[in-house]
Write a sequence for this structure.
């Protein structure tokens, strides 16, 4: 990891002076705010190492971006249990969920935009889901190059059965945060996402 903007700490800036001494009280430490019980996460350790070799840089951005990336990686590694039991990957479920929540046929391009994915990735997922009988394709009456996708009855039933289980699983994952903390986190992430989408555009993958 590297510091996000590499900005040198201004005179009197105590960013580089954060120490683990604040861990016991949950105050800012080298690497951000300590967790409950003074626990220190892996990003905090990385930040402390950077402070040791480059005390002149502000690691504030790293303390946010690094944790967001680390949380995302751990959640991906966890392999959503309900989806795994249904034989689905998260991206495949996103395609099925998009067709279910919109309630009408979509083209592959529309699915790509809705799921923040590349056209090639969506084409691959649709092929797999069609072979499983979960999605069906209809050619356009006026343009044979255009396809319209919709859920089969089996696909709709699968989404409706998996979604409640998946939400329960995600509730358990977030159980370490109370309702207020979850609400605050969702709001902050929402604000960040709006800014990033406006500035960088929707990610594709």
């Amino acid at each position: 990891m590297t510091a996000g903007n590499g900005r040198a700490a201004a005179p009197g800036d105590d960013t580089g002076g954060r120490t683990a001494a604040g861990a016991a009280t949950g105050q800012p430490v080298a690497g951000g705010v300590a967790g409950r019980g003074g626990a220190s996460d892996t990003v905090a350790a990385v930040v402390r190492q950077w402070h040791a070799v480059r005390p002149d840089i502000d690691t504030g951005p790293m303390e946010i971006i690094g944790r967001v990336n680390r949380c995302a990686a751990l959640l991906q590694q966890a392999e959503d249990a309900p989806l795994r039991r249904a034989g689905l990957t998260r991206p495949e479920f996103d395609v099925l969920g998009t067709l279910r929540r919109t309630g009408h046929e979509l083209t592959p391009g529309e699915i790509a935009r809705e799921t923040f994915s590349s056209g090639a990735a969506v084409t691959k997922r649709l092929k797999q889901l069609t072979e499983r009988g979960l999605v069906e394709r209809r050619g356009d009456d006026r343009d044979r190059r255009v396809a319209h996708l919709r859920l089969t009855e089996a696909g709709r039933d699968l989404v409706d059965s998996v979604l409640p289980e998946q939400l329960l699983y995600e509730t358990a994952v977030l159980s370490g945060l109370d309702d207020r903390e979850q609400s605050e986190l969702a709001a902050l992430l929402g604000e960040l996402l709006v800014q990033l989408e406006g500035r960088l555009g929707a990610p594709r993958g």
Confidence is low (pLDDT under 50) at residues 1-31. Helices lie at 42-53, 60-77, 81-85, 90-102, 108-115, 119-131, 153-173, 179-200.
